[in-house]
Amino acid sequence: MVGTGAIGVSWAAHFLNHGLDVVASDPAPGAEDRLRDGVAEIGADPARLTFTADAGQAAAAADLVQENAPERAEVKHALFAVLDEAARPDVVLASSSSGMLPTEIARAATRHPERVLVGHPFHPPHLVPLVEVVPGERSSEAATDAAMAFYASVGKTPIRLRRELPGHIANRLQAALWREAYSLVDRGVASVADIDTAISQGPGLRWAVLGPFANQHLSGGPGGIAHVLEHLGPPTEAWWRDLGHPVMTPELERKIIDGVDEELAGVDPAALARYRDTVVRAVLAAKKEFDT
């Protein structure tokens, strides 16, 4: 585990809770104490957790490396040069990058670029099952298959991208929603709170159970998605043409910030996060019950 910020702490707790030994590395002062406190707060036993400030030392001891450094190319390149030098040749080097291309990340891995790929979790990794496995131009099938098998073995739901794109899949879908949400605020169509309500009390409830295509299929009744496309295809195209193209101006940023402040006035952020995580756990438990 290389990099022990919020994502690294969550990953570490998840791996520990699935019986793995974790060797963590982070050069920041106080990183070990924050990591141990965070892991314990999530509910993982830190007894099988060791720490070193030396990323190469951590990689040399690893059967898989999960990297969680800042989203800056120069940081990734410097780090992957070290990891590629230290790790055994068969060890997958997976980046948690939320948007960078694995081909770009692998440029620094001159010895074994074939074992570099993206293993992008969805925050928080100890709770949300999704992992996007993204091979780059030089990633091998063996490394990709190993990553898919590893994530599945620790209770994740991995999906493999057939082509690398900035932002992968889930973040691009989120970005599409955010673009229109920001546009609606910018145009004065709705408040920040109303948009949050529109999703959390509307389609978001269905999206927590089934994805967009399966939900659209069900909305078509006996005719399924074929019926939906026949009758709502042209109107949907018209809506697409009318979607906004907001620009992140200081004025729009201020509207968003003020809207969130108004929506969450008096709400404790830590309590809100606990509420979110508790409900997500309940949804996951219900899905598991009905899926079996």
UniProtKB/TrEMBL annotation:
Protein keywords: Oxidoreductase
Record-linked SUPFAM superfamilies: 6-phosphogluconate dehydrogenase C-terminal domain-like, NAD(P)-binding Rossmann-fold domains
Statement: the UniProt record of this protein carries the keyword Chaperone: no
Record-annotated 3-hydroxyacyl-CoA dehydrogenase NAD binding domain positions: 2-162
Gene Ontology terms: biological process: fatty acid metabolic process
InterPro entries membership: 3-OHacyl-CoA_DH_NAD-bd, 3HC_DH_C, 6-PGluconate_DH-like_C_sf, 6PGD_dom2, NAD(P)-bd_dom_sf
Entry's transmembrane regions: none
GO-annotated molecular function: NAD+ binding; oxidoreductase activity, acting on the CH-OH group of donors, NAD or NADP as acceptor
The 3-hydroxyacyl-CoA dehydrogenase C-terminal domain, residue ranges: 167-235
Top-level taxon: Bacteria
Stored Gene3D superfamilies: N-(1-d-carboxylethyl)-l-norvaline Dehydrogenase, domain 2 (1.10.1040.10), NAD(P)-binding Rossmann-like Domain (3.40.50.720)
Annotated pathway: Lipid metabolism; butanoate metabolism
Statement: the UniProt record of this protein carries the keyword Oxidoreductase: yes
Family the entry assigns: Belongs to the 3-hydroxyacyl-CoA dehydrogenase family.
Name of this protein: 3-hydroxyacyl-CoA dehydrogenase
Name of the gene this protein is made from: fadB_1
